[in-house]
Write a structure and sequence with these properties.
This protein has 5 helices and 2 strands. By secondary structure, it is of the alpha+beta class. A two-stranded antiparallel sheet has the order 1-2. It is globular and about 30 Å long. The chain starts with 5 loop residues before the first strand and ends in an 8-residue tail after the last helix.
Length: 103
């Protein structure tokens, strides 16, 4: 693992896991959690539940952080928490545009 990645251990759906991201992405995930008055595990679990199963969790978190940084975060988060598609749907809740999921 790169020395530039920060590994965090989380409990998702009752199972322990760890995710390694760059500190900048963790700061964005932390901001999402603070803005929504949630814990990091709750944010990660929501993103995990709505991601395309073919997309790694770390990738889905980076995309969510990117959306947050670009100002799209509130709309994306509302879609994740209110109108979340099934886990089998393309990353519509995280990517915003399912046609770009494979781009």
């Amino acid at each position: 693992m790169s020395r530039h990645l920060v590994k965090r251990s989380l409990v998702l759906s009752g199972h322990g896991t760890s995710v390694a991201l760059e500190p900048e992405f963790w700061r964005a995930i932390d901001a999402i959690a603070m803005e929504n008055k949630l814990g990091i595990s709750q944010v990660v679990e929501a993103i995990d539940a709505t991601r395309d199963p073919q997309r790694p969790l770390a990738s889905a978190l980076r995309v969510a952080a990117l959306h947050h940084a670009s100002g799209e975060g509130e709309a994306i988060w509302r879609q994740i928490t209110v109108g979340a598609p099934s886990a089998s749907a393309p990353d519509a809740a995280v990517d915003g545009d399912p046609d770009l999921a494979d781009a």
